[in-house]
Amino acid sequence: MLALLAWLTVIVFMALILTKKMHPFTAIVLIPVLFAVVGAMLGLYAAPTARTLKMPLEAVTLWDQISVLGTWIKQGLTRTSGTAFMLFFAIMFFSLMLNVGLFDPLARRVVHLAKGDPLKVLVATSVLATIVSMSGDGTTTTLICCTALIPVYRKLNLKMMHLGVLLILQNTILNLLPWSGPTARVIAVIEGIDVQRLLNGLLPGMILASLFVTAGAYALGLSERRRLGVQHLSDADIDAIFAETSSEADALKRPQHTLVNGLLTFASLALLISGTFDPVFIFLVGTVLALVINYKTLAEQKDRLYANSGEVLATVIMVIGAGVFMGIFTNTGMSDALAGSLVNVVPEAMGRFWGLIVVLISAPGGFFLSNDAFFYGVLPVLVQAGKIYGFTPFEVGFASLLGQAFHMLSPLTAFIYLLLSMTKLDMGEWQRACFGWCLAIFVIFIAAALAFGMVPLYR
């Protein structure tokens, strides 16, 4: 029953989002709360309630199982609070850098190189996303690429969906680097795993997938070229395009502080990638310094904080919603039940195909569950079962990573709300636009793993 509630929660939530029947924030909070109340009415949470409230199991009442939902939601919010605060100040910081015109020269340079050719812009998008994604952080990739490229897309009237798709695809691929989330979790879960062998096994599929996406960017660029044509812009034309800004926007620019703002931004990103300080601290201090450097008066600082708060709220509120979802899903046991259903559905006679089964489980597992839930909850079960069927922990761990081709489309991935907010894209439309590409990347991952002998699909 708990597994059924878990699947219904996920399915109903996704259906409402994809059909645009409900705002993502409303759905991500309301649906798990409603199904959690149903589970409480059925008495499914007696054991987790007893653990949370530190009371005897036999003393747990129906009201206890309902009232504890507030505690579980608070715990979920606590888990995502770090991400929410980091995004709060990161968005504010980069919004200020956009206000002062720091990225105008970069956008201008990209347009000058492209000379109005959509094909060159889209290929540049893929390459830039690949390079920046090597940091292993989706938030950093989104902030850098979007702040640099959104003005270019707007100037040339390119489809913003192409930016949202290409960015997430390259970030999905580079997210398999050992210093990124999923691979780091596999290394932590499987004791004694050969990290170098793991990286060497992943690289061929990552390289092929990245080249595939860049080739796809070329094809999309050809399509945009046919739609818009090549504008054959001269340097004077490009300068004229960038001169078409409002007087209000021009009043916010601080070209005299470009060097200082550039150094501040570079230092913030360098510290973020190096891990010297916590990201919240970096962007908090960066935001305050950006305000003090560029806007001297109280009125100017107040105006910038209020003006940029809408962008901040649109993203942070979704991270808060994800915290509610995770708090309920994890503490009620729905997450474990869903994971168990993924494993138990496999007949024992199919054990010789365990490699293939793990690969197939990793796709919905990576989408419907958080990386913590999948790699810390499901993977150990898959590893133990694999030993029975003759599959090594390394093979099972490697197979579990292949489904990450779909993970970035999950509503439980916090930074995608930043991407959607900055590009003004609808989540359902964006997921549909990405799905076919992610499926192709999944196939490439599997083919490369087979070709290089990393995962036997059957024994």
Automatic annotation (TrEMBL):
Keyword terms, alphabetized: Membrane, Transmembrane, Transmembrane helix, Transport
Localization annotation: Membrane
A Gene Ontology term for the protein's cellular component: membrane
Citrate transporter-like domain: residues covered: 32-403
Bilayer-spanning residue ranges: 27-47, 84-103, 123-150, 201-221, 280-298, 310-329, 349-369, 374-392, 398-422, 434-458
Main subcellular location: membrane
GO molecular function, one term: citrate transmembrane transporter activity
Membrane topology field: Multi-pass membrane protein
Keyword Membrane: yes
Protein name from the UniProt record: Citrate transporter
